[in-house]
Amino acid sequence: MTWNIPNILTLLRLLAAPGVAVMFLYFQRPWADWFALILFVTAALTDWIDGYLARAWKQESKFGAMLDPIADKAMVIIALLVITGFSGMNPWVLLPSTLILFREVFVSGLREFLGDTAGLLKVTNLAKWKTTAQMTAIAVLFATGLFEHEFLDRTSGMDNETLDAIMSGAAEDPLGLTWFAGAAEITFNIGAVLLWAAALLTLITGWDYLRKAMPFLREEANQ
């Protein structure tokens, strides 16, 4: 193992992945949402920073090349589990998340089966766009949870008649309820669209990896 700044950043990103879920165990919402969002976005940024530094400083290594996709997958999978949980198993989140998780498990299994020949499944530019779309969608959906919980906190103990009057514009809105409700709806819609786009890219790249691996799979079958 080569311990340099790019590899250390990658390792920290890997360690941050379970930290996103841990935030919801040790902190009350919306603080947990805030901390999870900040941790996830910070860790996601290191995905670009460590790669840039490794190339700029000529510190690319086999250890970094191995650890980087593992850290990315751990971040995405754990974050999707958390988001699926607090979204109440919403199908607009659950279905693309299922496709993404299925692809990640499938490609990881394919790489393991191919062994020494797994080098043919190199990360493509489209796969990098896929990872970017996934992380952006997750960050936006974490913001949705934040806005939703702020709305719930501010309406706690409020009767339905008063709430309906505020939301319809018939009464003043000193707590900013309409803003939080609107922000939650907008971020959810944007996040869902990005997540479905990421799922589509995930399936395309997964099929590309399978297509490249097919000659080796046929060879194994003939033996």
TrEMBL record:
GO molecular-function terms, A-Z: CDP-diacylglycerol-glycerol-3-phosphate 3-phosphatidyltransferase activity
Localization, UniProt: Membrane
Coiled coil, from the record: none
EC number(s) on file: 2.7.8.5
Membrane-spanning ranges: 7-28, 34-53, 74-94, 186-210
Enzymatic class: transferase
Top-level taxon of the source organism: Bacteria
Catalyzed reactions: a CDP-1,2-diacyl-sn-glycerol + sn-glycerol 3-phosphate = a 1,2-diacyl-sn-glycero-3-phospho-(1'-sn-glycero-3'-phosphate) + CMP + H(+)
GO cellular component: membrane
UniProt record, GO biological process: glycerophospholipid biosynthetic process
PROSITE patterns: CDP_ALCOHOL_P_TRANSF
Topology of this chain in the membrane: Multi-pass membrane protein
Family: Belongs to the CDP-alcohol phosphatidyltransferase class-I family.
Protein name per the record: CDP-diacylglycerol--glycerol-3-phosphate 3-phosphatidyltransferase
